[in-house]
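Hey, quick one: can you model this chain's 3D structure?
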Amino acid sequence: MRLVRIAIANVNSTVGAVVANADRVVFAVAEAARDHATVVALPEQVIGGYPQEDLIQWPAFVESQWRELKRIAKETAKYNVVTVLGVSVARDSHLYNCAAVLYRGAICGLVPKEKLPLYGIFYERRTLTSGRPGELAEVEGIPFGDAIFDFDFGTMAVEVCEDLWSPDGPMRRRAFAGAELVVNVSASPFRSGMLGERRDIVCGRARDNEATVAYANLVGGNDGLIFDGGGFVSQNGKLLHDAPRFQEGVTAVTVDLDRTRRRRIENTTWRSDQARAASLASAVHRVAVKTVPSRAALTYPVPSNSTFFLPEARKLPSQRARYCEELLDALALGIRDYFEKTAAFSTIGVALSGGRDSLLCLWLAHRAVLMNSGALSDRAKKKIVASKLRAFFMPSKFSSRETRLAAEKTASELGVPLEIIPIDEACDREVEATRKMLQRGESVTDLAKQNVQARVRAARMWNWANSARGLFLQTGNMSEKAVGYTTIGGDMEGALSVIANVPKTVINYLLDYLLETTNSEAIRLTLKKPASAELAPDMEDERDLMPFAVLDTCFALYAGEKMTPSEVAAVLRVMFPKERPAQLEAWAEKFAKLFVASIYKWVQAPVSLHVGNLDLERERALQLPVVQKTEWHS
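Sure thing. Here's the predicted structure for all 634 residues.
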């Protein structure tokens, strides 16, 4: 047996906090050592934080990471643990995203990332240079390039994030060169429903390359990106370890690398592929590291149910619960880390409308401030909520009794202090001031009167934020944002958009789930009433726009699948057969018209949390020209 204990360390790093991040790494390595780990894998860019974007162009920022890498090596020298972590490295006129291998106080090698993404939310190729197959150089005398590492327990390869996701990545080349254990350091942002795909890819790569693959992910929020942490260890395709998500910590599993070696010997296809590749591929360089065996404390990894032939009896949560809980956790983590890492705020404020969006945002903020408080008493938790959260209800003459009651009930159930401040008098003054600004023949429109209400509320929230050092949460959803059913200077205002990338159908789904699991009377009251902005008499959002199920389908097809309105209408006819075809065509045309006309609005929105593959943020995901015509539709 060649027993090796592999630790996955999920670290919540902050961009630029190189000293604090390095301290977290040292702590994690010490935890892994106490658990008798042989190898500990930490996240991509864990020292500098991720994403670094153009900050990496500051030489002092890159130099500080190198300094901290040396300090980490020095402070972990007493542990007999091989440490793999991510760091930025400068060499000549190039910058690289590297995995560094440390052992006993030495930096054993640096392996640069080969696959630099330039899609979706990623911009790495803008500033970084790719590693090259077969390359070997030095940085301050340390091997740099396409290398694998020979230890007493076996041969290890390291790689960075996207190198794993590409089937043409370096893993196959390095496995054929002798690597039995492959450690991938990653910073993969949360995407709803992505966990299973990640797990399948990790296991697939381990199976294809007859290797043991360890994948460690970053945890925490940085700007609008949320990293869910977790990680996997898969041996030759079999999942051995699934690390917890949405929390910092170190977990580990023991594997027998002789099993990986045996599988390679048995697999004639793998051996013939290796022999053929050996004559064609660029040379992978080997770095020998002198190690002292310290694996006497490890025992063979036996099944928890003491049988190799029967499955483990594990009760898994429903697909609905998994989907909702991970999305709620991700959004709460995004709020918490934005609040804590910026260090600019002491409280969090939500303007409750009595509607669904603001209700969910307050629930999420409540969840955020209580993350990692499980060991506290109920009294202590209530004290945290009362000190950190604020809710405001600013009714107008159009606000219904039901929404006021829902707002009051929401704040009461969650223990959040609520202030009620009517806005009619202020709105009347603004309408009169607007009237004085107009020329002869011009008049204040009904739309302007509606928007005045939203802007008065937003201005008050900003004034509160300035006075109370408050994080003002913007509560608009993706569906309404996509079609401009929003007010610039009004409900689009805030310091952080919480659900701006969550469609209305998902908002309703999450609230239905929370109602089922909490039996909240506030949620029940809110869901009883049709969604309405309540800016005019008898107002209903779906009547003004279209059914949200249809709107979200239009968004997915037009913005996601890049269809024309006529193509969208064709799909709508299949999905909504009870609706008149002419009505569906009209809705498809209406959506496209509103979407294009609203780009100028959503490019002005605050930083938003990213939780899906299709996000409405020009700087991160959907980069569309503000000024455009739609003659190409026909």
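One thing worth noting: The chain has 21 helices and 21 strands.
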